[in-house]
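Shipment paperwork, digital attachment
Item: protein structure file
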Amino acid sequence: MALITDELSVWDISHRWISYDPEGFRFRYPLGVKDNFKLLFEAILHGELFCQTLILAKRPDDSKADPKYYIRTHIDEIYDCIHGSAFNKKLLKWALISRNDFKEWCEHRSIPLPEFWFPPGWKYEFEQPEFGTRAFWATHMEPAEPGGFAIRFEIPEQLKDSKWTGGYSDDALELDSSSLRKNQLAKLCAQQLAIQIWKESPEKTISEMCRDDLIQKYSGAANYQSALPKWLSEIAPVNIKGKRGRPRKKSDESLD
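Attachment content:
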């Protein structure tokens, strides 16, 4: 699996760039690793590549700042590395480079982005949905039993308002020009209704929730019965997800 961490040390980059384990034990550094040490420290020293922990600025003599963040403090070790006479492992691990700064440096140098940090086909940045992901919707829900655990999902009001108008009545589930598809809208309606119902009836199973009159009449899910249990399981309290409903009768089969 590729890395998408925000920053890596010169030590890590130099090893991973040629597919070596940074934590592997070896008596001598491979030639490619040493070349990367030299390349990166030279780029940092010449101002081509910004290093978060080794800045080029001069530290005033009377400054309270920690001198280890200034490259001049380590200039002898830097030159030793560039000339290949010595490689200070502690300094190589101290020198941190951000993913964005490394990307810009590679582009300015026309260096292909290394796949360990920039895997082909992956987006460079995570595109956060306008109203966040389900990770941000999860909120605490008091468990039914001591020592248990439960959560529920609060779908943002802005998300609801942007997808439909007029509330939950049968004649109000109208899509505007920028809305979701009908099945996506039905899913959101069903989940939001279920969240509210579970607040009042926390022991209600998923099967019972699927048959609930409010879900059936006002969610728009009547045409998506086979998908409804899965939709509701996504937002069901943890203590409910493992519960089974009553055995199905033939009359219930149309609901699943």
